[in-house]
Design a protein that fits this description.
The protein has four helices and no strands. Helix 1 packs antiparallel against helix 2 and helix 1 packs across helix 4. The longest helix has 26 residues. The chain is globular, with a radius of gyration of 15 Å.
Length: about 120
């Protein structure tokens, strides 16, 4: 029971963070997005869409009970995105700046593992 509540808190927090991050990547002009290394603009837009869809996938499938297997898949996908962000930030800005995306990657991986192991059997 406690682990379910903790997973929901982490899922909700991650959903809000990725909703904001994805929306920012889609809304702001390319010149306003400052990244540690040069990345193609179309790739940044793709990441924005993936983060928005991932934020929805973190919450809706599990809460509605419709294809709940999509929640750990969304969390695993976001883990891969943020792991890449950690590496890019580490290369461009150093260890201290890479700690935030690293924590997000660990939290996303925890949700993926927690929801996969506690997945309702269909």
């Amino acid at each position: 029971m406690k682990s379910n509540l903790l997973l929901w808190i982490v899922q909700g927090s991650l959903a809000i963070i990725f909703l904001f991050a994805g929306g920012t990547k889609l809304y702001l002009p390319m010149d306003a997005l400052v990244l540690p290394i040069r990345v193609p603009g179309l790739f940044i837009r793709f990441l924005g869409v993936a983060e928005l869809l991932g934020s929805v996938g973190l919450v809706l499938p599990w809460s509605l009970g419709i294809r709940p297997v999509l929640t750990p898949i969304a969390a695993a996908g976001l883990t891969m995105i943020v792991t890449g962000a950690t590496v890019i930030t580490l290369i461009g800005d150093g260890i201290t700046a890479a700690l935030f995306p690293l924590v997000l990657a660990l939290l996303s991986a925890s949700v993926a593992y927690g929801r996969w192991s506690g997945r309702p059997k269909v």
